[in-house]
Amino acid sequence: MNIKLLKLLNKDSRTDVRDLAVMLSMSEEQVRADIAELEREGVIRGYKAVIDWDRLDGAYVSAIIEIKVTPKAGFGFEDVAAKIMKYPAVESVYLMSGVYDLNVVVKGKTFQEVAQFVAKELATLESVTSTATHFVLRRYKELDVELLGSGKDERGSYLL
Amino acid sequence: MMDYGRLLSPTVCEIKPSGIRKFFDIAETMEDVISLGVGEPDFLTPWEIRKAGILSLEGGKTRYTSNRGLAALREEICNYMNRKYGISYDSQGEVLVTVGGSEGIDAALRACLEAGDEVIIPQPSYVCYEPIVRLCGATPVIIRTRAEHDFKLTKEELQAAITPRTKVLILPYPCNPTGAIMERGDLEDLAQVLKNTNILVLSDEIYAELTFGGKKHVSIASLEGMKERTVVINGFSKTFSMTGWRLGFACGPAPVMAQMTKIHQYAIMCAPTTSQYAAIEALKNGDEAVGAMLEEYDMRRRLMVEGFCRIGLACREPKGAFYTFPSIASTGLSSEEFCEQLLYAERVAVVPGTAFGQGGEGFIRASYCYSTEHIAEALRRIEHFLKNR
Known about the structure:
heterodimer; A: alpha+beta; Alpha-Beta Plaits; 4-stranded antiparallel β-sheet; two-stranded antiparallel ribbon; B: alpha/beta; Aspartate Aminotransferase, domain 1; Aspartate Aminotransferase, domain 2; 2 domains; 7-stranded mixed β-sheet; 14 helices; 12 strands
């Protein structure tokens, strides 16, 4: 498994294959083959942009929903997780340790829309015993990318 | 009216300010400039090291330390020098904690030099040696190291530069700006020349931990018979990304260190206390963080070397520090012309090789203390510049 390649792609999935090859001391063909294999094996599941939605007023809100579940005999949590993840409004679903069971990130255009979705769709699911909704007010860092500050290089010394 | 001409020291006035400062001041006023100019890491100081500094403040460690530096830090420095380079120093008399490596260089030169003495300086190299030698009233003797020798100092060049007045040889490896290193065999050659002399080697090893391709740094002080004639300068800025903490150290023979300590005592008192506490953590537990940074530098280094070669600027593989030093001879431009035209045409700032001595003519220094995206964009712009001029 080419972990170094994964780390580089995780940092910037648009890096040229040529540059990846140089940085990893591999041939371009080998890099392409490794990427194809990682995709085929389902290790790499997609390539997305990191977007600072807060710059677009009113286009996007999200909330973290803590869900407690009574697992059905023989199905565990998979059954309810499989249902929840099918909603397009659901961004991610995690099974958690601790005081609640599923952590679900839900997105929408407005807080009301998200709240409605939780109340109507998630809370009413069979085996869901409670939900707690936490709205995201501001994103400071997303997928390793700092969204706060200018990003300006403060280094000024050119000769050292 | 004050007559400053009469007031100021002629020796100081004759020292030229860095010629390219102006050039980079222009760059700073321009929009969308992408720089490969800086000489410090883009990484922040690893968190555990920062935390050690914060904890020392919270614990009220806000006073002077002993002049030579905290005893615990000096002991860690001795452990480090032994572990990394196989040299054993006495933490009592052979180690001085300084304000960056720079202060160690200054103190070592001042401890040795008188008017009329000569100091051998291989160039291209870091910019501080020549001015400090002149401030001491001594004479710099420049050796131009050659690209065909990978910018190493050879024993023939050294032998030819030595006179009865030679007091100090500055050995700046791994080298800023060339990225050259001196391997064990290269150093053994120099040691042969130096062993029967009374010349002190001032070995500036600030980049010692930043070497690539499995080439571990060798300190000349670790060679037989050389410890007694070598002051090693090292520090935390480059290795641990601690430039702003201003902390370095010098290790050397007790008689030299005693005089350096006096200079340090009267000029500085002691290195910053907070930084010293952070440095203890760096030396004890910093290896893993350094390893991760080194791996990142290595990828950037390959990206940059390959990039310059691909777009037609011949570039040797630098074995140390975090700079590439490509030749711009193929353009027919001087180093300064190249840098100026590149800045105005493509808004990329690099440093002319001549900033590091006349031997740097025909080269530019490009630092890879930048993200790979940044480096790739800079290379695209330089390629565009080369195609369109």
